[in-house]
Q: What sequence folds into this?
């Protein structure tokens, strides 16, 4: 049988299938099939060969020939699975006597053959059925484990065809479940039903095809096959180009044409020029974010159907489309989207555009920072988790450790697993594994798993790493032992080699037992299964023993190993072990395998040594190139980590978050102009090495070619002829505007005659200056010149050709032209022009210079100097902002004005934004300096200082310091010779410059400041002061600014230095500058002057405090008071003395707080030495005690006192509520009353109209003022002012029209007035006045009606036989009528009852000889025309000898019989305000 060859994807344990046939097996089956056939009746060979239209088949061992039609179906077919060559040899029959016997033997032989064939076919059918059932079960069990996204094994290929021909596109796709494939044309879905004759799509065993019939030029497009299932999708594209037949060319229609036709013409490769308009640069992201890298480009030519293929790479490894990376290309834009960044995504990303004419690419680095840790201080997540050596029940994982800078070191890792399709993560190891490799055991055969890793340090656990791809727990050896036989187009048989081997009882011995992985935590044992293995499933048991011992111990007693791998844990580190393996099936256990020999449990690798030789070089404005020498001991190297630190901060930051294997790395994201140092760490599976030595500090700036378009300088300009003889010319020129990043080292000049096309070198060695004499020229010829500047970057671009100069000798008396006109200090209305003296001076020395000016665009020159200036510079003022000017300069000698210089280039009069000027000052060391700062510097810019617009004559007197964008000119020994104009210019900035006039007065001021700094005084934060402590101690202190540890101080009192002692504790804290002296006993002897003297190197200072006279007495009194207070607080005392508080209800509370009390402490309140009782005792928690005064008034004035007393001591607090205190309380009551006062209301009385306001509390000392029409009202008979406890009022007696108007009530609390208003006029007044008249009339009637004024008692008790006289005083105007009543009826007057009325006011009723019948209720009715009233009197008569009955007012006395039987009782005296007379 042929062995099935596994494709690469099956070797990775992703899946296996039956989609790809073995061609060798197919040919073998064909061979056997062709050698067998059904037995037919024999025919003669002549008859078999005579038929030309029939198919004849021969049996190699038969004597007869069976002839049948090709379409005839044979009754039986010999199975093609066994060789019958031995039986098919021709059998020579023995001669027989009879033909019958011969035929009989032939029939018997044929029947025997048929029986054997039938048995063989039945066996084979049973075997086939059994294998199909087993395969179905395995497919059902392993379907989940084989789940995978589509993947193209054979991608689409581009085609070029002729018009009207057909083309067929093929691709092969794998995946489980079986992917579906859709076809697209230029991203538009192809609907086969819309054009059924145009497209034909087929799918057969994973091979998919698209056939396009009768192609036209419209079919030229990009065709895409999109394969998808539930696990994802994949696509493949190809281009179809349809060419149209032209002229005599013969179209290639298909293979149906004759073979001698010409094939397609050779393909023409089209070069596509790619120009990037937008590129992705160095990018920075954080884990969890989304990052998009894109490039926009211009394609020339941009053919729709011939687009380049965009392929993305990370670290030169092609990026496949997945859920972690999405690629798109269209509309001249290539995009890579990373939807969820992990540190696995860090690296160098490259976009390659592949065209038929070549490859265009762009690269940039992507940095991915760690996300915030779930716990502060936890490490970053591991990365690049991968697996290998997967089997039925285990897999080995590897990963890369995270970088550690400020976090604590990683102590181990946790590995988690999860079944594919679920979210249930299970931690695989209980204790952290210390190596970046771990064998995961306990997997279930046939299931798919994903894994992740977390790092652990002492602060916590990191975020998990990115999950791995799904891995299926399968034994690759099982797949290798499968064999597939194809015996027709639609049927196949898959046979395992185990079944062909039959039953093996017991199994063989495992072989090749060896240790595959070793670490200090575990070892991985590996072996080969026994051969033959048998059809029964095998499991394995492993035993271990200490090296040199014969005591074997079972390792996996409870769970047998199902694969020939086993991870063994719980071994002693550093010990030697031996191992052996047993194979077990259902029939028994094999003999033990050979021992592995001693195996030491230890790490095979060591923590690597640190790299060395870390050095760095400038790259760009924000990056540095770091180089290092690799680690000498770096077994199983993973890579290197680089850290950076800003000089002076000790804040190390990771530069890369994923190890790099090379020894050169470009660190990005640095700050321009700052200094950094770098260090490197080596990484392997055991972790990180020690850090390397730090590199030298480097300032981040662009290198010579980093960030500058041209490292070579720009071209010189302004070539001027300065002198000329008959065979030589002297020329001058201006320096390049941009130096290219380094100093100009020289110039090269070329010249030619105007009539010559070729340039000739004027000099061999570089010209160091900017003036050069060219010799050996032809007199009378015209020459042109061009000049190139040179620096470390090379020779720059040559200048433009000069104008032609004639070579002839100058003989004039006037001087030649000046040259090298330059400008500086360009401001909004001025500039400074500088020039060089002429080379040709004429017949006399140059005595001065004149300057001409001309506006740009004008030909009118005017001289701006009234007379020639002797200096070679001039400040031009009064220029118009925004205009451009051109300048030229003449030299002047005795002969006159010489030739003008070459006109300058136009100069725009406008200051650059942000231009700064030179400033002067004195630094902390006392150095006088001039400073200039430029923010528009380039990396090649330099500061140049000068004096009077020339070089500084004596550089020994100054020192120049430049730091970044700031430069200082420091005077070493300043004196009067340093006065003058100082200038500074910044190269490569288009003329940024400034000047400063250092005058005598300013220099003297700066020198005075310098002297103060160089002979300093120690600055004081505070002068000498004192503070009294709570025990009466006095602290003298002062504080200085920062001093050195060598500083010293002295305390001097009255010219006597005090030393540190028990009575005078002196301390000096140099870190804070605090100096203090504490005097334990401050007495009258301590009066005087206190001085502190401080010295710190050259710096000195002192501070004094005078405590004499009243100042000393104040300190002494405060010290004694604090001492007494301290003693007082040792016993019960008042933490807060007595004070007052007014509540919102105007209740005055006297409050104090007590402290250090106990249960037996006695509290007492007194007013004017009389004890009073508080509402409640002191609060034991807060210590607060209150005495409430509800209705405060003048009678509450007095001295209030509270006392505390117990066995620890006593204390007293006193508050005098009088004078100012009383006034403040009244003012507070006034404030509360004023805020609570209601609006004014009207109340009418018989006397007049009353205006009143209700408030919380009113007392006579509350200041209340009334106003009528803004005039203050004084209390009088007409206007009476008063109040009660809850209101204030104004009584307007007998109101009239003059009393109308606005009334205001004002309450004043000493600070604020609270006012209420009422307008008493109009209808309000009318209604009030009417009510007043009504009440007045009612009061008058009430006053004059008849009434009893007094004299009658309520109850009268009298003994029988006595005379009763009832007399009362009555009133009424007019005199009222008096009527007496008995029991509410008129009393009949007679001799027994008679009444009198004397003087109209004394009414009497006399009853003579009263009897019991006279008992009853009597009444007197007094009435006149205004009304009257009735007064009742109860009369009770008792007999002699009886007890006086008790009679209540208004109750009729009982009858005599009832009274006689009543129990005697003591009568109550009548309660009445009236009096009666008894006669």
A:
């Amino acid at each position: 049988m042929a062995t099935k060859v596994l494709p690469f994807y099956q070797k990775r344990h992703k899946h296996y299938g039956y989609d790809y046939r073995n061609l060798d097996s197919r040919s073998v089956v064909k061979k056997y099939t062709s050698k067998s056939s059904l037995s037919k009746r024999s025919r003669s060979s002549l008859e078999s060969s005579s038929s030309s239209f029939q198919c004849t088949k021969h049996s190699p061992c038969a004597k007869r020939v069976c002839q049948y039609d090709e379409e005839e179906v044979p009754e039986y077919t010999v199975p093609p699975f066994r060789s019958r060559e031995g039986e098919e040899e021709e059998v020579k029959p023995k001669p027989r006597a009879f033909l019958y016997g011969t035929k009989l033997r032939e029939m018997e032989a044929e029947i025997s053959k048929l029986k054997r064939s039938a048995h063989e076919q039945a066996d084979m059918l049973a075997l086939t059925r059994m294998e199909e059932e087993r395969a179905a079960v395995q497919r059902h069990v392993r379907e989940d484990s084989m789940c995978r996204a589509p993947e193209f094994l054979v991608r689409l290929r581009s085609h070029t065809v002729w018009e009207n021909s057909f083309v067929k596109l093929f691709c092969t796709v794998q995946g489980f479940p079986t992917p579906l494939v859709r076809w697209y044309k230029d991203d538009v879905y192809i609907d086969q039903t819309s054009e059924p004759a145009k497209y034909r799509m087929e799918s057969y065993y994973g091979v998919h095809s698209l056939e396009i019939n009768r192609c036209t030029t419209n079919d030229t497009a990009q065709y895409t096959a999109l394969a998808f299932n539930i696990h994802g999708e994949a696509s493949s594209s190809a281009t179809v180009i349809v060419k149209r037949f032209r002229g005599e060319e013969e179209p290639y229609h298909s293979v149906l044409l004759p073979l001698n036709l010409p094939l397609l013409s050779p393909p023409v490769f089209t070069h596509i020029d790619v120009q990037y308009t937008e590129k992705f640069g160095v990018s920075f992201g954080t884990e969890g974010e989304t990052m998009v890298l894109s490039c926009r480009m211009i394609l020339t030519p941009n053919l729709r159907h011939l687009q380049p293929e965009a392929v993305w790479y990370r670290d030169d490894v092609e990026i496949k489309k997945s859920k972690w990376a999405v690629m798109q290309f269209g509309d001249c834009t290539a995009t890579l989207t990373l939807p969820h960044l992990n540190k696995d995504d860090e690296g160098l990303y490259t976009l390659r555009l592949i065209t038929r004419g070549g490859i265009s690419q762009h690269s940039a680095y992507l940095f991915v920072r760690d996300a915030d840790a779930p716990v502060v201080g936890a490490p970053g997540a591991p990365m690049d988790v991968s697996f290998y050596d997967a089997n039925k029940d285990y897999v080995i994982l590897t990963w890369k450790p995270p970088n550690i800078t400020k976090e604590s070191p990683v102590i181990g890792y946790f590995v988690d697993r999860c079944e594919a399709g679920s979210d249930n993560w299970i931690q695989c190891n209980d204790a952290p594994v210390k190596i970046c490799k771990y064998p995961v055991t306990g997997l279930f055969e046939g299931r798919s798993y994903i894994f992740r890793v977390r790092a652990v340090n002492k602060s916590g656990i990191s975020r998990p790493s990115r999950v791995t791809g799904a891995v299926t727990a399968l034994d690759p050896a099982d797949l290798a032992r499968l064999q597939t036989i194809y015996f027709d187009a639609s049927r196949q048989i898959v046979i395992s080699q185990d079944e062909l081997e039959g039953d093996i009882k017991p199994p063989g011995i495992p072989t090749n037992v060896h240790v595959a992985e070793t670490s200090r935590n575990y070892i991985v044992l590996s072996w080969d299964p026994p051969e033959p293995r048998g059809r029964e499933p095998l499991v394995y048991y492993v035993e271990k023993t200490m090296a040199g011992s014969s005591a074997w111990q079972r390792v996996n007693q409870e769970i047998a190993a199902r694969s020939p791998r086993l991870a063994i844990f719980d071994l002693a580190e550093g010990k030697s072990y031996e191992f052996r393996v047993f194979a077990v099936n259902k029939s028994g256990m094999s003999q033990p395998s050979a021992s592995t020999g001693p195996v030491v449990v230890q790490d095979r690798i060591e923590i690597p040594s640190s790299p060395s030789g870390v050095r760095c070089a400038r790259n760009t404005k924000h990056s540095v190139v770091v180089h290092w020498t690799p680690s000498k001991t770096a077994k199983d190297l993973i890579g290197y980590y680089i850290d950076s630190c800003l000089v002076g901060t000790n804040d190390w930051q990771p530069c890369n978050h994923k190890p790099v294997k090379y020894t050169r790395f470009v660190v990005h994201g640095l700050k321009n102009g700052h200094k950094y140092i770098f260090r490197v760490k080596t990484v392997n599976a055991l972790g990180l090495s020690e850090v390397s030595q730090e590199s030298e500090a480097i300032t981040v700036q662009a290198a010579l070619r980093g960030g500058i378009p041209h490292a070579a300088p720009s071209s010189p300009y302004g070539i001027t002829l300065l002198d000329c003889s008959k065979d030589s010319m002297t020329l001058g020129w201006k320096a390049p505007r941009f130096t290219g990043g380094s100093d100009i080292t020289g110039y090269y000049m070329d010249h030619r005659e105007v009539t010559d096309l070729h340039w000739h070198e004027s000099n061999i060695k570089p010209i160091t200056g900017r003036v050069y004499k060219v010799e050996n020229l032809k007199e009378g010829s015209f020459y042109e010149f061009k000049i190139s500047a040179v620096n470390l970057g090379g020779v720059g671009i040559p200048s433009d050709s000069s104008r032609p100069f004639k070579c002839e000798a100058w003989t004039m008396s006037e001087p030649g032209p000046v040259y090298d006109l330059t400008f500086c200090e360009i401001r909004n209305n001025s500039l400074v022009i500088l020039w060089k003296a002429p080379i040709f001076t004429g017949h006399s020395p140059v005595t001065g210079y004149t300057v001409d000016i001309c506006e740009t665009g004008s030909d009118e020159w005017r001289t701006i100097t009234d007379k020639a200036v002797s200096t070679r510079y001039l400040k031009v003022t009064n220029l118009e902002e925004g205009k451009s000017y051109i300048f030229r300069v003449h030299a002047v000698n005795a002969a006159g004005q010489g030739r003008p210089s070459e006109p300058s280039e136009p100069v725009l009069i406008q200051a650059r934004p942000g231009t700064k000027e030179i400033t002067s000052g004195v630094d902390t060391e006392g150095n006088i300096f001039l400073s200039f700062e430029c923010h528009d510097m380039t990396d090649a810019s330099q500061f140049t200082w000068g004096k009077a617009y020339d070089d500084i004559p004596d550089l020994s007197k100054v020192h120049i310091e430049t730091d970044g964008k700031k430069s200082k000119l420091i005077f070493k020994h300043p004196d009067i010779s340093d006065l003058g104009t100082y200038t500074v210019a910044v190269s490569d900035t288009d003329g940024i410059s400034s000047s400063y006039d250092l005058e005598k007065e300013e220099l003297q001021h700066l020198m005075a400041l310098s002297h103060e700094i160089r002979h300093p005084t120690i600055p004081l934060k505070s002068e000498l002061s004192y503070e009294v402590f709570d025990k009466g101690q006095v602290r003298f202190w002062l504080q200085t600014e920062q001093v050195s540890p060598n500083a010293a101080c002295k305390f001097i009192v009255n010219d006597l230095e005090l030393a540190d002692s028990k009575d005078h504790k002196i301390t000096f804290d140099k870190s804070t500058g605090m100096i203090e002296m504490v005097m334990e006993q401050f007495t009258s002897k301590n009066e005087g002057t206190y001085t502190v003297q401080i010295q710190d190197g050259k710096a000195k200072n002192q501070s004094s405090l005078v405590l004499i006279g009243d100042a000393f007495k104040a300190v002494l009194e405060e010290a004694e008071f604090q001492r007494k207070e301290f003693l007082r607080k040792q016993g019960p005392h008042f933490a807060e003395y007595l004070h007052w508080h007014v509540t919102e209800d105007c209740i005055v509370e006297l409050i104090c707080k007590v402290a250090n009390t106990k249960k037996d402490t006695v509290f007492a309140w007194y007013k004017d030495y009389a004890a009073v009782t508080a509402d409640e005792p002191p609060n034991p928690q807060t210590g607060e005690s209150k005495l409430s005064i509800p209705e405060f008034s003048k009678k509450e004035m007095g001295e209030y006192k509270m006392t505390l007393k117990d066995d620890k001591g006593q204390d007293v607090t006193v508050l005098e509520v009088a004078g100012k205190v009383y006034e403040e309380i009244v003012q507070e009551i006034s404030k509360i009353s004023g805020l609570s006062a209601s609006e004014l209301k009207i109340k009418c009385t018989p006397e007049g109209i009353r205006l009143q306001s209700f408030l919380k509390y009113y007392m006579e000392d509350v200041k209340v003022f009334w106003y009528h029409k803004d005039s203050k009202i004084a209390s009088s008979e007409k206007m009476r002012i008063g109040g009660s406890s809850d209101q204030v009022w104004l009584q307007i007696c007998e109101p009239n029209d003059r009393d109308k108007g606005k009334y205001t009530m004002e309450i004043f609390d000493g600070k604020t007035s609270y006012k209420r208003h009422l307008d008493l006029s109009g209808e309000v007044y009318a209604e009030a006045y009417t009510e007043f008249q009504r009440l007045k009339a009612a009061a008058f009637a009430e006053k004059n009606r008849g009434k009893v004024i007094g004299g009658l008692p309520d109850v009268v008790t009298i003994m029988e036989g006595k005379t009763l006289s009832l007399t009362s005083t009555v009133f009424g105007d007019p005199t009222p009528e008096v009527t007496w009543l008995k029991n509410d009826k008129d009393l009949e007057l007679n001799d027994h009852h008679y009444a009198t009325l004397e003087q109209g006011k004394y009414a009497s009723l006399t009853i003579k000889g009263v009897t019991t019948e006279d008992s009853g209720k009597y009444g007197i009715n007094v009435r006149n025309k205004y009304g009257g009233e009735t007064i009742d009197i109860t009369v009770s008569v008792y007999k002699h000898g009886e007890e006086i009955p008790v009679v209540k007012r208004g109750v009729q006395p009982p009858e005599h019989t009832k009274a006689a039987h009543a129990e005697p009782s003591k009568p109550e005296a009548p309660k009445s305000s009236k009096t009666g007379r008894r006669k």
